[in-house]
Amino acid sequence: MRIGGFLPAAILRRWRIACVVLLALALPFGSVADAPPVPGATPHVTVLTIDGVIGPATADYAVRGIARAERSGSRLVILVLDTPGGLDTAMRSVIKAILASAVPVATYVAPSGARAASAGTYILYASHIAAMAPGTNLGAATPVRISGESEPEPGGASQQGRPKAGGVKGNEPPNESKGRESAMTRKQVNDAAAYIRGLAQLRGRNADWAERAVREAVSLSADDALRLHVIDVIAPDVATLAARVDGKTVNLHGADMRLKTTSAAFDHADPDWRTQLLAVITNPSLALLLMTVGVYGLIFEFMSPGAVAPAVVGGICLLLGLYGVQLLPVNYAGLALVLLALGCMAAEAFLPSHGVLGAGGTIAFVAGALILIDTDQPGFGVPLPL
Fold first, then answer.
1. Fewest CB within 10 angstroms: 23, 166, 219, 345, which?
2. Residue 66: pLDDT above 90?
3. Are 136 and 234 in contact (CB under 8 A)?
4. How many helices (H) and strands (E) does the chain have?
């Protein structure tokens, strides 16, 4: 009820509180783990752990961990890695942090049974020291297909899409479509091959095998990787790795640096609450769910003005969902379909459409959710049961 054209004071107070809460949550959140540990008399080695798909959360964790090691005066960063791959943007963020680091970085594929597939292979090649535990493997670095294109084959092109002599592929539209897909696939594979070859040459490692890992999706065991000069050392655990790299010379921004790690203590920087929160909200399924809850919360507030709670919860969920989505490779057509679906479902509550808006919204929501994330990388799709 309005009094003299204004909202009652009680409602205004609740809205002010809600706005303060939303503003506080919208501000960039920091982390206690960002503060460097107090340096002691004993030199230390920073140990980071990535276990799983490399996405925005793990990339943020690795980048902040390397920066933390620099501030704390760490002698070496050991990145313990076990991954099936990840997003290209997240992988490149980690690699850029490694290349720009003022502290040497040793990527260590561990424990036994772990792997550094796809994006993990690139990160291993970018590191100053490449190490593996016995019984691990690396490779299979061919880019996954994007936007539903044909799967890359060895050599960077599919058999059906490979141009014939003279570059002419025939006049049938299906063949022309396959040719365009093949051209896009070749561009992706060639770019990835050049990227990993450049990293191999920078670190003085086997560049020919690195390119084969991209073009032919080949893999290597730890012993074979050491024999082919793909990695520098095999070690059963972190302590042994630190002992075996002691005295090694690495090139750090054009200057040689001798590692001194024998007497160093280990500073294990485990993922903090910020990393865990990012991992939750960058899960495509949960991001989609958060946006849905957020929109419905705002709708309930519009239907019952003054309740405030639906607006607060809805606003928080919507902001978190949108933040998570913008960190992912989003297909904007899918996002538009999801928003259209939510609009149709909201309109169904106000307009007598005999279920047409609701049915249309459901169809648009399912279609948009299925194409929302523009990658075939495992772990970043929206499952159909959702």
1. 166
2. yes
3. no
4. 13, 11
